[in-house]
Amino acid sequence: MSCAVASVALFLSAHSGQAAATIFLDEHFDSYVDQSAFTNAWPALNGTTVAPSTILVNTQSVSPSQSVEGLLTATRNQRSVGEVGFLNGSTDLVIFRINFYDSAGSAAAYRQFCELDDSASPTSSGQLYALGLNNNISSTNYMARVLGFDGGNGSGAFFALNDPGAPARSTGWHSLEADIGDNTVQYYVDGILSKTINISALTDRSLDTVKLGSNLTSTQVAYFDDVYVARVTVPEPSPLALSLLAGFGLVAKRIFRRRGC
Asked: Do 49 and 173 reside in the same domain of the chain?
């Protein structure tokens, strides 16, 4: 990055204002005293508090000292987070982030994932955003799914987060994040941009429910921690920032003609 471009970035960072976030879920699983308390807050998908529930454990965690284990049997829990709201014509982002423990990073991909859904349209395009792994494809990368979107493996199928520079799978904890906008989704693995997709053709949904576990059998267990859902309003640059950006652009153009700094 040139000195002039760096100055532009620093100025906009200082003067464009801070993004405002409405947090719908910030779950670390540390407040639950036992499995019953967990399933009261996160009912199993069939409405019971026993099987097929994921399991609250203290054998693995990112934020001390508990996480949730997705088992080899079909397990899944869900929690309503409230209506995140529609994004039509908005510059807002919906941030969906989880910490995911890959228990067998060198093994074939297995069915363990977390979803952010719209319960009002459970089978419609755009109502489901998943992060984790699935065995519908063979990949050494982590995966995502958007219902109604074809990432190269069929509409609604999981696709690999494998853009250049994307981290490969490895045993241990990994941060998986989807930044969902009106027209695009940017996916991050361990903070590194790993895939950008265009969802402008999908119907906008007001997402409202998080689901843990695949509800299908799996060849490996996985753990989930630090599940986060927020709607972030990104402020527009002020008129002063825009005018100075134009000025910086002219300076940068002249510098580029002569030499880099």
From this structure: yes
The mean pLDDT of 69-94, rounded to a whole number, is 96
* C-alpha distance from residue 197 to each of 24, 139, 172 (Å): 24, 18, 26
80 and 175, same domain (yes or no): yes
My answer on whether 87 and 187 are in the same domain is yes
Residue of 220 and 19 predicted with greater confidence: 220
Residue 113's SS3 state is strand
Amino acid identity, residue 82?
G
Instruction: Look at residue 250 and give its three-state secondary structure.
Output: helix
Let me know whether 153 and 226 are in one domain. Answer: yes
Total domains present in the chain: 2
pTM: 0.83
Kindly report the CA angle at 231 between 27 and 39, in degrees rounded to 5? 25
Instruction: Tell which residue, 174, 247, 259, 258, has the closest CA to residue 7.
Output: 247
Q: For residue 45, what pLDDT is reported?
A: 83
Same domain? 192 vs 206: yes
For residue 89, pLDDT over 70 is answered with: yes
Q: Are residues 222 and 253 in the same domain?
A: no
Question: In which domain, by residue range, is 158 found?
Answer: 19-234
Please report which helix (H) or strand (E) contains residue 14, including its range.
Answer: helix 3-15
Going by C-alpha positions, the residue among 56, 51, 49 that lies closest to residue 34 is 56
Alpha carbon distance 215, 77 (integer Å): 9
